[in-house]
Amino acid sequence: MKRRGETIERVKNRERKQLDTKLIVRRVSVSIVGLLIMWLSPGVNAQDAAPENSANDPYWEIQVAPFALHWNNDSEHKHVYLLGIERSQSEVSSRVAADETLWGVSAFRNSFGQSSAYAYLGYRWNHLFGYPALFFKLTGGLLYGYKKPYENKVPLNYHGFSPGIIPTVGYRLTPSDSVQVGVLGTAGAIFMYSRRF
């Protein structure tokens, strides 16, 4: 009888993993199709989407992330939400070949349902690979969250504080709107929408 119970539990776990895999594939597929549609749509071309920042004026961006994809699904994972604000300016140190310097702060609910935050500095490189609408962003800063019992889910965590580095690729849809995908280390990726003002 005990052996049959173990077999049933294994089947349930296998079915749960298959459903999780199908959900991940569906989310990634929808995201890729959406990005392709936006990229190929005739109303949005690289010239129209180039930033209007010709006077090199500083600007703000608000960021919303309604979705994160985990490389390894865990039954404890919760839906991730993020809201952030970022300041960019074209004044860059001569030691860095970036187009803009930026700083910002994001508040989010982490993968385990805990309130978290990320304060950062970074750089943005515009016109990636010769495409005016494509950019790369690299930020580094202080991450807060991931308290007990999840303190080991991020490296170098000390009482909820840990360093964070996030490389991001973005595509400017219009002079004010962009979509971005940030890589969250070995945990996953986050999909964001930004609005410049």
CATH architecture of the largest domain: Beta Barrel
**Helical residues, percent:** 10-25%
What form results from the Cα inertia axes?
A: elongated
Global Rg: 20 Å
Mean of all residue-level pLDDT scores:
83
| Measured distance between first and last alpha carbons | 65 Å
* Helix and strand pattern: HHEEEEEEEE
Question: Sheet bearing the most strands, described?
Answer: 8 strands, antiparallel, barrel
Which parts are unreliable, with pLDDT below 50 for 5 consecutive residues or more? 42-48
Kindly give the count of domains: 2
Q: How many DSSP helices?
A: 2
| Estimated structural class | alpha+beta
The neighbouring-strand order within the major sheet is 1-2-3-4-5-6-7-8
By CATH reckoning, the class of the largest domain would read Mainly Beta
What does this structure look like?
The chain is α+β, with helices and mostly antiparallel strands and 197 residues long. The chain folds into 2 domains: 41 residues; 151 residues, Porin. The chain contains 2 helices and 8 strands; from the N terminus they run ααββββββββ. Strand 3 and strand 4 form a beta hairpin. The relative contact order is 0.16. About 4% of the residues have low confidence.
